[in-house]
Amino acid sequence: MFRDLKSNGFDMEGTWTEDIVYFGNLYLCLSIAYTWMIILGADCSKNKKSKIIGATKKLKNKMVRIYSLFSCGIKWFNRCYDSDIKKYKLKFDLVLYDI
Questions:
Q1: Contact between 82 and 54 (Cβ < 8 Å)
Q2: pTM to 2 decimals?
Q3: Least C-beta-crowded within 10 Å: which of 24, 27, 40, 96?
Q4: Which residues of 54-67 are buried (b: 16+ CB within 10 A; e: fewer)?
Q5: Is residue 70 a part of any domain in this protein?
Q6: Would you say 4 and 70 are in contact if contact means Cβ atoms under 8 Å apart?
Q7: Whole-angstrom distance, CA of residue 26 vs CA of residue 20
């Protein structure tokens, strides 16, 4: 998680903030985004989308994942976001509950 939040993923250190409230809010948002990328990566592995993004490799007649779930999720998110013809879509349901 440390590497994913730093230079290999969200580039959290690029903010250079000294305000603790701002950093707390930023960390909350990044934690939610990080969780969503992990869920997307797990969905990619489960639904055989990893072949599309090149996240698997065949070694000794066995399929092996070469990217982390976070990397798979971020690659799939970028593929869906950048898709011009909307061939790839992100499927998710957001449900808000009243308490």
A1: no
A2: 0.73
A3: 96
A4: ebbeeeeeeeeeeb
A5: yes
A6: yes
A7: 10
Residue 87 lies in a domain: no
In a domain, 89, yes or no: no
- pLDDT, tens only, 17-53: 888 998 889 889 988 989 888 888 888 777 777 777 7
CA 62 to chain centroid, in Å, comes to 25
Q: Phi/psi zone of residue 60: left (φ > 0), alpha (ψ -120 to 50 degrees), beta? A: left
How far is residue 29 from each of residues 13, 43, 63, 81, 87, measured CA to CA in Å? 14, 21, 34, 19, 28
Number of domains in the chain: 1
Helix segments in 1-99, DSSP class H: 2-5, 20-46, 50-53, 69-82
